Amino acid sequence: MSKLGNLGARLHRGEIGYDFVKNRKIWYGLSILITIVAIAGLAVRGLNMGIEFQGGAVFTTPKNISVSVSQAEEYAEAASGHDAIVQKLGDGSLRIQVAGIETDQANQIKGQLSEDLKVDSEQINAELVGPSWGEQIANKAWQGLGIFMVLVVIYLAIAFEWRMALAAFVALIHDITITVGIYALVGFEVTPGTVIGLLTILGYSLYDTVVVFDSLKEQTKDLTKQTRWTYSDVANRSINSTLVRSINTTVVALLPVAGLLFIGGGVLGAGMLNDISLSLFVGLAAGAYSSIFIATPLVADLKEREPAMKALKKRVLAKRAQSAAQGGTEVHDEETYADEPEDAAPAVVGPRNQPASRSRGRGRPSGKRR
């Protein structure tokens, strides 16, 4: 742990660092690939909408029933003539969902299930769900998502600038698309719990992004008055200085969610935990990734299109080329740009040692002045 703390301190001071901004094209390509896979899964398989959005009936059997899930699914489909979804709950009971049936059909299915499962009809609990309720939830969720997006963009544009607001918006769309695509590929049922999870990850997705943006805003004050760093250099320093913090907060948030997903949902069979925890797990991981690999490099790309930043970049590169030609002793991290001249020196990332004054202590072993 002490080594990790020392690593975080060195990253924060800029003594070491990984060049995230330099490799931004790799991250963009990886994100585009993941997004394409998610969209393809959504288009091919579609979302497994829960009964709350389709309407139908839910039957709950007594505890510790001796019938297997696959056998109960066969009984339910034979009795209803529709596809059925059967889940085994933690207490040993079965939850049987049949979509697209009416009240009279539900009573008939309940009676048939009692015979097939060899239990008393009164012991089977039947609940009817109308599709209008799920539609209302979906509409409210879309409205909430739209309002949230607008408010976030406005706030970030005021607190930071429009380029950061745009980058954060792209990162949010990236995270939501991946999360929904994973749901389609995995085949988990989309329930109101899923909607709650999706809305919850929006705040988590922005958390690390705003932390990096705040550091970037502070470090780029009066940036054009110096010739040591470009905007991309400072953006890279901002990511590295907050990297350990972002990793720690993400891991701490993912651990309990993973417990809900793999233990609560997988081992104990609590279906509602699966609905919420999968969206949270994927969303938290995607949010941490996008804040580091998408949002900040995208801001650097947009910012360096400004005339002032282009001019600064030329001055910095010219100074580095001059220093390299004169045999300068500065230590730089390797960084190249597509439009840089071949003889340009690499960018500075992190503090550099200032040369001692040539006249200081000359002729005096102690170095003291009289």
Automatic annotation (TrEMBL):
It is found in: Cell membrane. Residues 359-370 have a biased composition (Basic residues). It comes from the Bacteria. It is a multi-pass membrane protein. Keywords: Cell membrane, Membrane, Protein transport, Translocation, Transmembrane, Transmembrane helix, Transport. Residues 321-370 are annotated as: Disordered. The keyword Transmembrane helix applies. Its main location: membrane. The chain crosses the membrane at residues 26-44, 141-158, 165-188, 194-216, 247-270, 276-300. GO terms for molecular function: protein-transporting ATPase activity. One of its GO terms (biological process) is protein targeting. Gene3D superfamilies: Multidrug efflux transporter AcrB transmembrane domain. The keyword Ion transport does not apply. One of its GO terms (cellular component) is plasma membrane. Residues 113-304 form the Protein export membrane protein SecD/SecF C-terminal domain. Part of the Sec protein translocase complex. Interacts with the SecYEG preprotein conducting channel. SecDF uses the proton motive force (PMF) to complete protein translocation after the ATP-dependent function of SecA. Forms a complex with SecD. Part of the essential Sec protein translocation apparatus which comprises SecA, SecYEG and auxiliary proteins SecDF. Other proteins may also be involved. Belongs to the SecD/SecF family. SecF subfamily. This is Protein-export membrane protein SecF. It comes from Streptomyces paradoxus. The gene is secF.
